[in-house]
Amino acid sequence: MKTPFRTVAVVGALAAASIAITGCSTTEAGGEPTAEDISIAFVMGAESDPFFQAMKVGAEEEAAAQGVELIWQGDPANYSAETQIPIVDTVLAQQPDALVLIPTDPVALQASVDKAVAAGIVVANVDTRVEDLTDVLTFITGDNTDGGAKAADALAAKIGYEEGGSYEVVVGLTSPTATTNVGRLDGFTAQIEAEYPGIEIVDVAYSESNPEKAATNVNNWLTKYPGLDGIFAIDGTNASGAAAALEAKGLVGTIGLVGYDAYPDNVAKIESGIFTALIAQDPAEEARLAIRTIVEFIRTGETSTPKEVVIPNVTLDANTSAADLAKYTYVAN
Which of 114, 174, 259, 293 lies in the 20 to 30 Å Cα band around 36? Predict the structure, then answer.
């Protein structure tokens, strides 16, 4: 039977205290781990993605502030369960005290979370989540449903939506199962159905966090739907790929483009009219909070962080001040 990590943590603390009595402990006298004794593995998908690079900045800053070891791992370019699971197995073999996991698939990565928990490793989910959060300390993410709704509003405004009109839009995603993608698509679809019934989502396609594949998807749409009105690029790599495709075809401003994630290059393209809007998250703060929560729990056995934390999104467009554009642009490592 799987042992919940809370139980394992208590057992581990008692064992550490027992070792301390013999004089062989690396913990403080009270059995509480010293800062240098705590190691936290952080596993994401597609490490080269600027979203995850911005998250790395936050994770490194907080790990340094807390005085703990950070093990940062991820596939260099691929966002898939097939590439992520072996990486999780590798870091678990190092027996870290905690695992911050950004699961690329809620079902496929559940076994990895269960394996970590059974080994007494504290687990947090950031950005995306596994299906069952019972044994996960905390899940920290952006407000994806709201972000999708904001994207629908921005795209409808760009295409000049009017009652009785008929409009075609498409959606570019990274994955059909990643919970961020699902939440954003749900929010986008619900807002269109409620407020813009003349807009039809005629197609969706997946890029696996590859901007070149995202650009190919857009080029295919431009051929298939010559009257296309708008594109919702549901994450940063899809946004980059869509922008590149529209620029190459000379369609900047002709087709509305709303993207997700404040990549530096994409933020610069708001002013030039390539992007109607970008929905920005705060990946660095998500990472900081995850590290801070884990360290608090390991040191005290408790945490003040809720089980689920939702951080608001911000819409960046041509009316956003230069100060706010700079504030929300992702800072890469």
Answer: 114
